Amino acid sequence: MEIWINPACSKCRSALTLLDAEGAEYTVRRYLEDVPSETEIREVLTRLGLEPWDVTRTADPLARETGVRDLPREATDEARARWITHLATHPKLIQRPIITADDGTAVVARSEESVREALARRG
């Protein structure tokens, strides 16, 4: 299991606390320092079953500044690629934390319930 975090994020810290309390084995990825590639973002989106705009922090001021909110939300390869490139260029806009579960799925772990969902998927 891997968890993508921003240490300054309270939801990330809460998720780590819960993982530790449950004795989970996991790897921490500080995704602002170890920026995921476009390929890794695509893989996580597939595991999540979500579109790139679904994991974009569109309310963040950076979203407005960089124009990501104006990108088309179309289920086409071209539209998805533009969003993914934007997320790889501006990783701060990726929702967090994201936990990649052992069963090949992933969750955006913004609640205790979603962290427990990832824990239930352990091998």
Question: Can you describe this structure?
Answer:
- The chain is α+β, with helices and mostly antiparallel strands.
- It has a single domain (2-120), classed as Glutaredoxin (3-Layer(aba) Sandwich).
- Helices cover 41% and strands 11% of the residues.
- The chain contains five helices and four strands, in the order βαβαααββα.
- A four-stranded mixed beta sheet has the order 2-1-3-4, sandwiched between helices.
- The protein starts with a strand and ends with a helix.
- The model has no long low-confidence stretch (mean pLDDT 95).
SSE layout and pairings?
Layout: E1 2-5, H1 10-21, E2 27-30, H2 38-48, H3 61-66, H4 77-89, E3 98-100, E4 106-108, H5 112-120
Parallel strand pairs: 1-2
Antiparallel strand pairs: 1-3, 3-4
Family: Belongs to the ArsC family.
InterPro entries: Arsenate_reductase-like, Thioredoxin-like_sf
Protein name: Arsenate reductase family protein
